[in-house]
Amino acid sequence: MSTTQDIARRDAIHEYRVLSTPAGSDLEALVELAATICGVPTAVINIIDEEHQHQVASIGFEPGVCAREDSMCNAVLEHPEPVVVRDAREDARFRESPFVTGDIASVRFYASSPLRTPDGVAIGTLCIFDEAPGELGARERRALELLSHQVVEVLELRRLTRELDRSNEQLTHFAAQVSHDLRNPLSALVGFLELASSSEDIGSAAAAIARAEGAAARMGAMVDGLLDHSRAGGAARREDVHLDRILADTLDDLDALIVATGARVDAGPLPVVTGDPVLLRLLLQNLLSNALQHGGAAGRGARVEVGAHALTSGWRITVDDDGPGVPEHDRERVFDAMERGDAGHADGLGLGLSTCRRIVRAHGGRIGIDDAPSGGASVWVVLPASA
């Protein structure tokens, strides 16, 4: 007979469609990262329904399905924190499991962190293991916990995208861009965890873990905010938004791109405006990402400047780059969904700017493109001032 928890778990798994769709590169990358950081050859995302354990993404072996009663993770499914076992043969919960006895596998070292939905429903685990006894340090344990949270965030993002896809065509384009934008904090999280795992200095590792936690929190807040936005029918919230703080978070999420390309971002003081903090973060993230990707000269990263100028009824925010710019006859077209500027310089420009215009219009503002003093593009946005 199904318990209340089993029914809630079944419903959550059904909503995520995690058993009926491919794992995808996001989940596969998180599994690989878990194994790498924790120094083990095998890792897996296990989803546990009423009767079975489903291995939906794995590294080190081919994923499969087993009976729930045979699952090691089922024994600790409701445990609120990561579980670490040096040798499963010495643990009463696991010593009789066919994954330990050799009937299915010969697991010795085992560690897992629960996958809990925002409603607190445990649907499975992110699990790592080895055929030799092992240990897990505090840094690696925290990394495993953070990565398990990100597995759920990826599933939430997919669910959000499907919700948006069920609405009108405009929201479908918006969902596509949101799926892309949420990769920036996820990429930042992965980068900071890799830095922490490779650092031999405790202080540097702790700082990297703190930045990873910040990226994870931003991704969670963005998902929650976008869910609220979709449930409100696409209406923008109205509250005071400190653009300086949003810019700092955005630059942290784009840190890998900035470092990899040798780019530089200079910004003057930014104002407090009235708007939706989640949407305005997406706005700045798109504008900065475009400028970083399309600015710069041969052999040199982009030089991007962010500024603000007071107007009678609000603020004009500008993001200038030093790239080839956008020809005047293309400046309206690039705001149309899926349109792009010059094919040699502006791959991906259109969808991002289309989303930007949608966000700006939801705030009662305006957006356009001029020539930047550096010769590149200057994308400007007019937003209402804080009340």
Q: Can you tag this structure with a few keywords?
A:
single chain, 387 residues, alpha+beta, Beta-Lactamase, Heat Shock Protein 90, 2 domains, 6-stranded antiparallel sheet, 5-stranded mixed sheet, 44% helix, elongated
Question: Any chance you could write out the topology, listing elements then pairs?
Answer:
Layout: H1 4-16, H2 24-38, E1 42-48, E2 52-59, E3 65-67, E4 83-85, H3 98-101, E5 109-116, E6 122-130, H4 138-165, H5 169-181, H6 183-198, H7 202-231, E7 239-242, H8 243-253, H9 255-261, E8 264-267, E9 272-275, H10 277-294, E10 303-310, E11 314-320, H11 349-362, E12 366-371, E13 377-384
Parallel strand pairs: 8-10
Antiparallel strand pairs: 1-2, 1-6, 2-3, 4-5, 5-6, 7-9, 10-11, 11-13, 12-13
Helix pairs in contact: 2-4, 2-6, 4-5, 4-6, 4-7, 6-7, 8-10, 10-11
How does this structure look, described?
With 387 residues, the protein is of the alpha+beta class. The protein folds into two domains: 219 residues, Beta-Lactamase (2-Layer Sandwich); 134 residues, Histidine kinase-like ATPase, C-terminal domain (Heat Shock Protein 90). Helix content is 44%, strand content 20%. The protein contains eleven helices and 13 strands. The strands form three sheets. A six-stranded antiparallel β-sheet has the order 3-2-1-6-5-4. A five-stranded mixed β-sheet has the order 8-10-11-13-12. The chain has a two-stranded antiparallel ribbon with strand order 7-9. α2 runs parallel beside α6, α4 packs antiparallel against α5 and α6 packs antiparallel against α7. About 4% of the residues have low confidence.
